[in-house]
Structures are given as C-alpha cells and as structure tokens.
Specification:
The complex is a heterodimer of chains A (221) and B (122). With 221 residues, chain A is α/β, with parallel strands linked by helices. Chain A is built from eight helices and eight strands. Chain B is built from two helices and six strands; from the N terminus they run αβαβββββ. Chain B has a domain at 2-68 and 103-116: hypothetical protein PF0899 fold (2-Layer Sandwich), CATH 3.30.2320.50. The chains are: A alpha/beta (221), B alpha+beta (122). The complex binds guanosine-5'-triphosphate, magnesium ion (MG) and zinc ion (2 copies).
Amino acid sequence: MKTIVSIRRKALAASEEHAEELRGRFAESGTLVLNLISSPGSGKTTLLETTVGRLAERYRIAVIEGDVATERDADRIRALGVPAHQVLTGGACHLDARQIETALETADLLPADILFIENVGNLICPTTYDLGEDFKVVLLSVTEGDDKPLKYPAIFSRADVTVITKADLLPYVPFDLDAVLEHVKSLNPSGTIVIVSSTTGDGVDEWCDLLVERLGSKRES
Amino acid sequence: MHEMGIAIEIYRTCREAVREHGQGRLQRVRIAIGELSAVEPDLIRFGWEAVIVDGPDAGAELEIDWCKADQRCPRCNESKDRSEGSWLRICPDCGTPLEVRGGDELDVLEVTFETDDDAAPP
Ligand SMILES: Nc1nc2c(ncn2[C@@H]2O[C@H](COP(=O)(O)OP(=O)(O)OP(=O)(O)O)[C@@H](O)[C@H]2O)c(=O)[nH]1
Ligand SMILES: [Mg+2]
Ligand SMILES: [Zn+2]
Ligand SMILES: [Zn+2]
C-alpha cells in the first residue's frame, strides 16, 4: 500500500525545536544571547576578550566556544575569570542547538546576563542553524578583503549586527570601507554596523553600548 | 559538508513523519528550497543519495520545489524582478529598502511511503 502524507515542516525541524527550547530558557533567565559568526581568524575571540574586560565587572558574562579542535579559545576566556565551555565539533563546520544544550548541562554558564556563542570559523553553514540566540553577529576583518559581503550574502543579510574588525589595519590594506558599508546596508537595510579595533580599543565602547542596550530592551519586553 | 548535514536532517524529518503515520519504506519526498536559503539543490541531491544509499530507504526519490522570493518596493508599490537569487535588498529604481517575503524556505512538503503488505497497520 502507498501512503502520501502532506506535512509542511521545516527540514531542520528537529534542530529548530531544540533552538526554540533554548530560546525559552534564555528568556526565563533574562540572558541576551549572541551567535558570533565569521571567517577563521577575523578576531572573534579577541573581541570577546576585550568585551569581557569592559563589561565583566557590571554584568555576568558566559561564553560557549565552538571549534573543530583544541580548548584554546575557551582557555583564553577562562583566563579572564569568566565561565567558558568549549564545544569540539571534531570536523563539523558549524554549531547545532543540541550542542548548546549539552554545553549548558555540562558547564555552569547560567544564570548570565550575556551569553556569547562563538561559532566555528566559517561564513557559510553557521548561517543556517538557529542556536536559540537573540541575534547573529557577523564579523569581517579588514584584512579579509572588501568583497566578502557580496560573496557571502546570506550571513550578511541575516546578521542583525555586522562588526568590521581590525580597523587599526585600515591604513595598511586595500579595503574600501565605504563600499563595504554600502553593500552591507543593501543586503540588510535594517541591520546595525559597528567598526572596531580590539588592538586600539576604537569602537569598543559603541559595541558594548549596543550590547547593554539590547540586554535592556530584552528585559523590558 | 553544509548540504550533507542538511540532507541528514531532511531524512530525519521524513522518517519522523513516516513514524507518525505508520511505517514503511520511503518512496518519494518533496521538499521546498528558497533561493535565499543558502542551500544548493544539486548538493542536497548528492547529500540525499549518500544518506539513503545503504539504508532501508535506498532509491527514494527527492523532488525539489525551487521557491523565489517576492521582493516588493514599498515606494514604487510594485514587485521588483531582481536578478535570480540576488540578495541585494534595495530597489534598483529608487533605492528604497525592499520588503522581502519568502525565499528562505527549507521545508519538507510531502512524504510518500510504501507499507509492506505484512506490516502491522498504523
Ligand atoms: N591588528 C589587529 N589584530 C587583531 C585584532 N583582533 C584580533 N587580531 C589578531 O587576529 C588574530 C586572530 O584573532 P582571534 O581573535 O583568535 O580570531 P578568531 O576569529 O577568534 O579565530 P578562530 O576562532 O580561529 O576562527 C590574532 O592574531 C589576533 O591577535 C585587531 O583589532 N587588530
Ligand atoms: Mg576564536
Ligand atoms: Zn557546517
Ligand atoms: Zn522603488
């Protein structure tokens, strides 16, 4: 016998159910959750170190690090006295909501005011997987070239916030900042763009203000 | 890699749907992929073949509906026919941000399965 079943269901339904559960949990604990996505080496962990330096006295911060191998990034965060859990994906190029659940069970990360999830360095597939975050942040370092928003449009159009990093290197590399700002705007008209240098601290206040403001509006609603 | 992981999830979703409605062997699956989903239909097809090849559902057909986004300019008050798959969300005529509807589909629409004659009824 042949049976035809019409379902209209998200192909990633299983994973998305977990993401929704996580979102509920984060709403309960009043935690602002960011999913940080970028190419390898564009300065995610360094920006987190800088951010922790600015905010950890006033806010409870926790970090989940996703990497293919090594505890290096989590160690860098722990060295600052902030709880961090390392997810080792063993080859997989993105984090999945189920790994975030496991991280929360394994490590004492909640309650926290802000939870940063540093995704595996990759501009492509982390875009597709919901981790229960409030919003995605895409980082683009000026040394990667100014063509990246047009070449990887999906992440730039889905991330609420674009952070241009390593701005201190702008004088040394050919990077047309105005063109990048225009491309990001046309991919994502309602998004926010921040320009930072973790090395000099330029723009870091603006970035931290944005976090505090988003945390405030999450708690109000 | 990306599409492989998604193919595995699609397969899981289909299996789950079969389980909810009875039991049997997958024959045909229809899915929707949007042009803005960042998922490549050909790679999903390869992934699908790889996922089912050695299992009980080997040979199950995968049909893909390709869904275009509706990109509308609120100022010109009309749909803008941008080039296929363009992610730019600014009206080519007046520069206003476009309202984008759909195009991000990644859905399982329909699952067809065959019950063995001797299998227990659902
Ligand atoms: N000049 C300059 N270098 C920076 C800045 N931020 C980070 N770097 C350097 O960039 C390199 C990579 O930084 P990370 O923070 O480890 O990058 P990441 O994105 O976490 O890398 P993965 O986790 O491996 O994907 C390091 O050598 C940093 O010192 C910056 O603002 N300016
Ligand atoms: Mg890192
Ligand atoms: Zn991946
Ligand atoms: Zn227009």
